[in-house]
Each structure stands twice: as C-alpha cells, then as structure tokens.
Amino acid sequence: MKKFLADESGATAIEYGLIAAATGLALVLVMPTIKDRLGNTFNNISDNLD
Prior knowledge:
Number of strands: 0
Shape: rod-shaped
Mean pLDDT: 88
Low-confidence stretches: none
Helix content: over 70%
Order of helices and strands: HH
Radius of gyration: 22 Å
C-alpha cells in the first residue's frame, strides 16, 4: 500500500494532459487572429505584385 501511495506516475500523466489541454486552448484562441493577419499579409503581397 505504501508503494501505491508513493507512486506519482499517474500525477505526471495528469500534468502532461493539463499542459496539452492548455496548449490546445491557447492555439484555438490565437488561431483566428493569426489567420486574419496572415490573410491580410498575403493579400497585400498579391496587390503589390499586380
């Protein structure tokens, strides 16, 4: 029982899961802004090439 209670491998897996979830949420929140800015940049380049 002591060995089971001292085992922290499950906690490490949960921490990695939380980090992955936070990273995914950050990407979901930032992607629309990046998409718009990147689209505007390519439109400006295209307009200048014409």
